[in-house]
Amino acid sequence: MLDEDSAIKALVSAAGAMYSAGELPLFDDAAAVKVGDSVLIIKIDGTSERYSRYGWMGLDDLVYRVLAAAATDVIAKGGRPEYVTVSVGIPPTYGLDSVRRIGEGIRDFLNACGATLLGGDTNASTEDLGVWVDAAVIGRAVELKPITGVVEGDTLCVTGCLGLSALPALTHYAGLDESVLDEKLKSALRRPRIPLNFLDMLGVVKASTDISDGLRSIRRMLELNGLSLELSEDLPLCPEVAEVMVDHGISAEEVLRYMGEEFIIAYVPREGVGRERNVVGRFVRGAPGVISFRGREVAGGWDNFRGYIGRT
Known about the structure:
By secondary structure, the chain is α+β, with helices and mostly antiparallel strands. The protein has nine helices and 14 strands.
């Protein structure tokens, strides 16, 4: 069965000499190119209603989250999102109210992020797929932060708490009762906060990545740096997540497996800067890409072809 990493590598290989990674390493979160005195960071992201819209989300939420995901990649590379283009596919049977909801999602993102819409494209979709969205976000680098440059002994931290994305995934894939998702939590999941505050701490950051694919995102960082990661015993899980774990017997390993779009950034502090907050773990020598927790390797992360990695 096709997996996303193999597909990306095949595409890059086929493009050959026509492909350039620019100012960031190949397979980093986004691309960066120097234009005049500036470095522009570019990221495209997309999904469809069928694969990414829970029943309690609107079309505006779907579009907002796609744009927020692309913007988070730009921010993780040290860029401030400035411009957006959006391509949408809409089933012809949908009404104008649905189209307006899509526009409202774009508007709300632009207001939250301070970016400008440059246009886009409209296409037909199918009833089975529903609305699909592809969004490109362009930002100007404040201070470029690659995914590489990590060494053994470095610490991995995150800009917020972990695990919120795992809760709806657990209700959908693992049979957790949907009543755990109260309205306050659903509201936070519909409209995640865009981590613009990360731009204020770039001076203490050595390397960073977004974690929109959960552990798979972190695993990519490990592979590009040739290291393994030992997760902290005391993971910085969100209070809502810890409460559900206790009430429903959910293990930390299950939360890690089902994490997906967290809309926060994993970063490596520069040595000696005293910024080790929300510690996820420490980089160690070992097989590149291996993540261990309590002495055992853990699976998890989202793959667009295979779904959640390690899901039974």
